[in-house]
Structure formats: structure tokens, C-alpha cells
Specification:
The complex is a heterodimer of chains A (162) and B (300).
Chain A: H1 6-25, H2 31-59, H3 63-68, H4 74-103, H5 108-135, H6 139-159
Helix pairs in contact in A: 1-2, 1-4, 2-4, 2-5, 2-6
Chain B: E1 3-12, E2 18-28, E3 32-37, H1 43-50, E4 58-63, E5 66-67, H2 72-76, E6 79-82, H3 94-104, H4 109-122, H5 138-151, E7 156-160, H6 168-184, E8 186-191, H7 194-200, E9 203-208, E10 211-216, H8 218-224, E11 229-233, E12 245-249, E13 255-259, H9 261-273, E14 279-282, H10 285-293, H11 295-299
Parallel strand pairs in B: 3-8, 3-9, 6-7, 7-8
Antiparallel strand pairs in B: 1-2, 1-4, 4-5, 9-10, 11-13, 11-14, 12-13
Helix pairs in contact in B: 3-4, 3-5, 4-5, 5-6
The chains are: A mainly alpha (162), B alpha/beta (300).
């Protein structure tokens, strides 16, 4: 992110594009839903990106082989890679959470349910990412597949909510 | 100083391809150990088993008393590997690449930074420390990979074909680094450059079709080889009848006679008397390798 700031812009642009489209199409009526959708998209995309990133690091850089032959435990490797993915999403999460705080008038229970749903979504996407990366041996295929999954799990449901 | 021991290591892949067959040997874990063999001979399979990445179908192995299969956790604290075709992550600078590897290995940020600087300096890479690795030459990228493992505490370093694809100058620069590294740690090196093994390795093992066909110092390999001397003759020279020798002629017409010491000096005397131009040398690792691995390799 420090070396290529464009990555930051790319991570931020997807959830905000969906937020803007839904807001405009609904004439502002679904702004709250769009914020929630943006949060879901950010969490899910972060997790599912693991699939392509891990596959890239494993197949093209052989990083996984280097890590296996080191004191790094599998749990530490998985945690580290997961946190690395979420770091890229911090800017968009921060903006979305601020918007949610201002425009979503939820009760504490609703906030807790939403937070739990987002965390579960993230956990599922991370699990999917790790599992699918073990089957992938080509980064081109990986990136295409992760975009497809991201679309299926985050964009399509938002247009079927109401 | 300990030992690396392999007993009956066998690996059969799921597609029934036998990559290793009953490989048994013991070497001291000091200096540089070179494993040579043709493509598909089983070098990478062996190195991956020893580096705890792959489980053998049968057999056992241990390094400095740690069982590769049963004590892999303890062993991993002492080993590091640069796999074949490994590449340094191109969106990182050289220093970031070394530091991130150290962080993975459990070093603190402060210690990692210090060790990364020291390792890059040791390899003469200070000027590239803050340069993106995507902008470095192939040889320098390979040096950064070596700097990564060198910065760690690993006592045993596996390098799978570390100089493949490098130009001759970069290769020699890397040899110098490996020679220095081999004085401090044990390097297990695979290569298909015979000159590399000859130049670097204290002990050399030859794998053929998954089987260990020879192991020893270059001098020991020479002694155990059927022939100890090589005589080369220019094209169109009549080769006399020989009792115990291997005669081959390459595409340029140069004839090579590999034979034992007595026969070699008898021939040399004959050629000298006939004023025939010739060269006589002790067999090289190339000669031993080609003899052991087969004529087919030479033709290819």
C-alpha cells in the first residue's frame, strides 16, 4: 500500500461505487441499505481476496514453501494473511462506519446483529478464500474466480433486497 | 556439528510416478553439500522432504538429530529454504522483503529491521535496500532471496537450483556469497550446473531416476569412478585399439577417451611419439556425471 497507493484507491472505490449507484437509483431512499451493502462488500471482498492473493504468493513467489520451512505455525500464517487483507480495507471501513454512525439510526441490538453478520460474512469469505486458494494453480484463474464470487455474494444480493 | 541422515527415502506421487527410490546416505551438516542430477531425477522431491514440506512414501530422515517427520516443529526453527523458481515479492523493496520474512519467522520489528540491514550489507545490497525489487536485475533479486534466509537464525539452508537462469557473472557473484555462507552454516544445494557443484560443494551426491548413484568429495568420486583420466583428441585422429576405455566423439569431431591411469599415460606417450595434439586431464565432475548418468544425457 505504501509502495503502490493506487491499491488503496482500488480498495475504496468498489464499495463506494455501489453506495452511489443504489443511492441515485432509489433517489436516496435506500441510502441506509447502501451503507450496509458497502460494509458487506468491504468485508466479503477482503476475505475473498485471500483466494487470489494466497494463490499468487504460493504459485508465483513460492512464499508458502518458504513459510512452511520456517517456525511460522499454520494458525499464525492464516491470522497474519487475514489481517493483512483487512488492513487494505481500513480506509473504506472507516468512511462507511462514520456514514453508518450518522445516517443509520439503529438500536444497540440492531448494531450488534449487523456487526455479527459482518464478522460471520468475513469469516466465511476468509474460509472460502483459504480453501479455494489450495485448489488454484493459476493466478489469472484465481483473480477471475474471486471477482465472480465477490459479485455473487455482495452485489447481486443488494439488488434483490427489496 | 551434526549429521543429515536419510534411510530408505522413497516417494511415489499420486500419479504413481516414483520420484525417489530407497535413498540412503549420511553427511555432516557443515560446509556445502551439492546434489546433482538431470531434470526429474528427484532433487526437488528430496529437498522438499528434508525441508519438511513433503512427506515421503517410505523411509526416514533426520537433521542434527531432529526427525524430519516426527519433530518437524523443532526442525523448522533451524532450517530455511529458497525453493526452485522462488521470486522475491515485486511490490516490496529489498529491505521490506527481508524484513517481512523475518517477521514471519517471529522476529520483532526492531530486531528484524536491524538484521535486514546487516544481511543486505553483507551481500553488498545496501544501495538497493529501498528500491522496489521489480526494478532489480535477475541476479540481484536472487541475492535478495539469499539475504532473506541469511538474515534468519537458520543453521541449515536449502537452496534449490539457486543460480538457474542467471548470467555467468551473476552466477559467479552468487558463488562467492554461497562460499562465505557455507563457512557459517550448512548449505544443501541442488543444481544441474556441474561446474557449480564442482566449485562450491565439499561433498557431492548424484541422483539418477530417483536413486542415489554416487556420493563423496570430488576426489572420492574420481577414485570410485571406473575411469580416472580423460584424453581429448582433435577430429580425424585415429584412435588406437583400447582394452579398458570409453570412447566418444561429439558433433564437432572431438574424441574423448576416458580410461584408467596406466592406460591414459601409455596412450599419452604414444600420441606424443606420433606428434598428435591431445590433452590429458583427470576426469571432471562432468565426466563422472555423464558416465554415471548415461550417454543419453551427453547427447541431449
Amino acid at each position: 500500500m505504501v509502495n503502490y497507493p493506487i491499491v488503496l484507491l482500488s480498495a475504496v472505490i468498489a464499495p463506494f461505487s455501489i453506495l452511489i449507484v443504489i443511492t441515485f437509483v432509489s433517489h436516496g431512499a435506500l441510502f441506509g441499505t447502501a451503507i450496509e451493502g458497502g460494509l458487506i462488500m468491504t468485508f466479503f471482498s477482503a476475505g475473498i481476496s485471500l483466494q487470489s492473493d494466497l494463490s499468487h504468493l504460493k504459485n508465483d513467489f513460492k512464499l508458502q514453501d518458504m513459510i512452511v520451512s520456517s517456525p511460522t505455525s499454520p494458525a499464525l500464517y492464516m491470522t497474519g494473511m487475514t489481517l493483512a487483507e483487512i488492513v487494505y480495507s481500513i480506509p473504506s471501513l472507516a468512511i462507511l462506519l462514520v456514514l453508518a454512525g450518522i445516517y443509520l439510526q439503529h438500536s444497540l441490538l440492531q448494531i450488534a446483529i449487523l456487526s455479527l453478520a459482518l464478522l460471520l460474512m468475513f469469516a466465511i469469505s476468509v474460509a472460502l478464500g483459504f480453501m479455494l486458494s489450495t485448489f488454484s494453480n493459476d493466478v489469472v484463474q484465481s483473480y477471475a474466480f474471486s471477482r465472480l464470487l465477490s459479485l455473487l455474494f455482495t452485489t447481486v444480493p443488494q439488488f434483490t433486497i427489496r | 556439528m551434526g549429521t543429515l541422515e536419510c534411510h530408505g527415502l522413497t516417494k511415489v506421487y499420486e500419479d504413481h510416478r516414483k520420484a525417489l527410490e530407497n535413498v540412503t546416505f549420511t553427511v555432516e551438516t557443515s560446509g556445502i553439500f551439492g546434489l546433482i542430477g538431470r531434470n526429474g531425477a528427484g532433487k526437488t522431491t528430496l529437498i522438499r522432504i528434508l525441508a519438511t514440506e513433503l512427506q515421503p512414501t517410505a523411509g526416514t530422515a533426520s537433521i542434527n538429530g531432529f526427525d524430519v517427520l516426527k519433530q518437524e516443529g523443532r526442525l523448522r526453527e533451524k532450517i530455511a529454504i529458497v525453493p526452485q523458481e522462488a521470486r522475491v515479492i515485486r511490490w516490496m523493496t529489498a529491505k521490506q522483503a527481508v524484513l517481512s520474512y523475518l517477521l514471519w519467522r517471529g522476529y520483532s520489528y526492531g530486531d528484524g529491521k536491524k538484521l535486514a540491514d546487516e544481511s543486505l550489507a553483507k551481500l553488498g545490497l545496501q544501495e538497493y535496500a529501498n528500491v522496489l525489487t521489480s526494478k532489480l536485475s535477475g541476479g540481484t533479486k536472487r541475492k535478495v532471496l539469499i539475504a532473506m534466509v541469511m538474515a534468519s537464525e537458520a543453521e541449515i539452508i536449502f537452496l534449490d537450483e539457486p543460480t538457474t537462469g542467471l548470467d555467468p557473472i551473476s552466477r559467479r557473484e552468487l558463488w562467492e556469497i554461497l562460499r562465505t555462507l557455507g563457512k557459517e552454516r550448512f548449505i544443501f544445494l541442488t543444481t544441474h550446473y556441474l561446474e557449480e557443484a564442482e566449485q562450491l560443494a565439499d561433498k557431492i551426491a548424484i541422483l539418477k531416476d530417483g536413486k542415489l548413484v554416487s556420493l563423496g568429495t570430488l576426489a572420492e568420486l574420481r577414485k570410485t569412478a571406473k575411469y580416472q583420466y580423460s584424453i581429448k583428441l582433435p577430429p580425424k585422429v585415429q584412435v588406437p585399439l583400447l582394452k579398458d576405455a570409453e570412447v566418444t566423439t561429439d558433433k564437432t569431431g572431438v574424441t574423448q577417451i576416458m580410461t584408467n591411469e596406466d592406460e591414459a599415460f601409455r596412450l599419452a606417450k604414444t600420441f606424443a611419439e606420433q606428434s598428435v595434439k591431445f590433452s590429458i586431464t583427470p576426469v571432471t565432475l562432468d565426466d563422472i556425471f555423464f558416465y554415471l548418468v548415461g550417454q543419453k544425457a551427453r547427447d541431449e
